[in-house]
Amino acid sequence: MPATITERVRVIAADLFHLAPERITEQSSPELIEAWDSVQHLNLILALESEFKLQFEPEEIDLMKTIGDVSALVTAKVGHRR
Amino acid sequence: MIRFVPFTADWIEATRAFNCRVAATGFEFPLQPAEGSYLAVDGDTVRGAYMLRRQGFHFHGDEAGVAHFRLPLSEGAVNRAYRSVGVQLLRHAMRQYPMLYALGMGGMSNPLPRLLAAAGWRLAEVPFFFKVVRPFRFLRGMDYLRQKRPRRLAMDLAAFSGVGRAGVRLIQPAVRGALGVECIEQFGAWADELWRSCRGSYACIAERDTKTLNKQYAETKYLRLKVANLGWTVALDTQMRGDANFGDLRVAAIADTLAAPGAAGDVIRAATAYLERRAVDLIVSNQMHVAWREALRGAGFRPGPSNFVFAASKPLASRFNDSGQAHINRGDGDGPIHL
Predict the structure, then answer these.
(1) Which residue of B has its CA nearest to A56?
(2) What is the distance between the alpha carbons of residues B284 and B251, in angstroms, rounded to a whole number?
């Protein structure tokens, strides 16, 4: 069974922040993950754009407050593309 | 939610408040609204700002529009809640001008170069060169090198014993037999001819025609030096006062240059000889192109650590393969503002 978008986002984030995937939850945020600084935020965006073949607008980046927000945004953009 | 607006007079007070909140960064955004200035705002509050300045660049003679990504400031630098603003500024700028560059930035390890590197920009330090003209004053006054007591003592010993002078004269001899220079008030038609004749020799070079030069170097502090019909340099001769690096030294900077790469040696030797005659303590220059670096070495300059970084976005970097063939120096970007 293919991984869901949320699962794929969690794996990408875990890899980027050097954490086990189970430690990445929908509530995970920069306040809870020390390594999530502005450079890693950009790396997360680039990794998501590469994985899901999409591009975020500057204004959308502001919506990515938590991993749950990120997943919701990716889901919406992928759904919109379909 | 963050949105982007052009910086207009309506936003001056909000920008002033933003500057206060990011004061710890040591930077502030200019409060004069100007074309190409953008704000990242959240409601009525400014959370980030940057400027774009369009410039004509030539790539082996082919012209293309490039923009200088200037003074990006994000509240994320002082408040993690706004960590995404820096990325948004960069994305917004890229959307307007894919061919972007940034310059200076204080060294590779600072936040902005790290962010640009993560975004896939090509970064290179613009090599720094220096030449000591008055060894005694350099050894006694170069505060950057005198921070630790043992070195300070060694430099004092070298200064008072004469060893320092002998050593400097050995490795950085004064230029002899250089061409003469003409100190000019303005650039004339000859500068346009020079620009047209040599721009195709460089893989990447910003516009240096007469109009651009006379605008950029209008102030009297600039020494505009014409070297025969071969080329020109723009230099500065600055008496420092309590500078963190240069103390009270009199420092000259060969800030900007133009000649065909094959004439770089003659132009640098002529400018160096002229500045040596002015009895400055030290001459410095940042030059990216290999011909200008070799010219500086040939005139007795030695390399030093550089904190002057040139960063090119992916679309810009794709226009030239080798940074060493790009003509980048302190004349680019905002121009020679510090020396």
Answers:
(1) B91
(2) 7
Model pLDDT, residue B339: 59
Q: Are B254 and B283 in contact (CB under 8 A)?
A: yes
pLDDT band at A82 (very low <50, low <70, confident <90, very high): low
For A41, the closest chain B residue by CA position comes to B84
Domain co-membership, B17 together with B160:
no
Say yes or no for a CB contact (<8 Å) between B80 and A37. Answer: yes
> Could A45 and B87 be called an inter-chain contact, meaning their C-beta atoms sit closer than 8 Å?
yes
pLDDT of residue A59: 84
Which pTM does this prediction carry? Answer: 0.87
Q: What angle do CA B61, B205, B213 make, to 5 degrees?
A: 105
Residues of A in contact with B83 (CB under 8 A): 30, 36-38, 41
Query: Residue A58 and residue B86: Cβ atoms within 8 Å?
Result: no
What is the rounded average pLDDT of the residues B291-319?
Answer: 95
> Does residue B58 lie within any of the structural domains?
yes
Contact state of B87 with A37 under an 8 Å Cβ cutoff: no
Mean pLDDT, residues B32-53 taken together: 95
Residue B44 shares a structural domain with residue B133: no
Is B223 a member of any domain? yes
Whether ipTM tops 0.90, in short, is no
Q: Do B210 and B88 belong together in one domain?
A: no
Nearest C-alpha in A relative to B5: A59
Q: B286 and B145, same structural domain?
A: yes
Q: Is there a single domain that holds both residue B82 and residue B200?
A: no
Task: Answer yes or no: are the C-beta atoms of B331 and B234 closer than 8 Å.
Answer: yes
Domain enclosing residue B80, as ranges: 2-97
**Total count of domains within chain B:** 2
pLDDT at A63 over 70: yes
Q: What is the CATH number of the domain that holds B151?
A: 3.40.630.30
Q: Which B positions 261-320 lie with beta carbon below 8 A of chain A?
A: none
| Secondary-structure percent of chain A, ordered helix, strand, coil, rounded to 5 | 60, 0, 40
Is B159 in the same domain as B31?
no
Residue-level pLDDT at A57: 87
Residue B111 lies in a domain: no
Residues B149 and B238 in one domain: yes
Are both B286 and B140 inside the same structural domain? yes
Q: For residue B316, is it within any domain? A: no
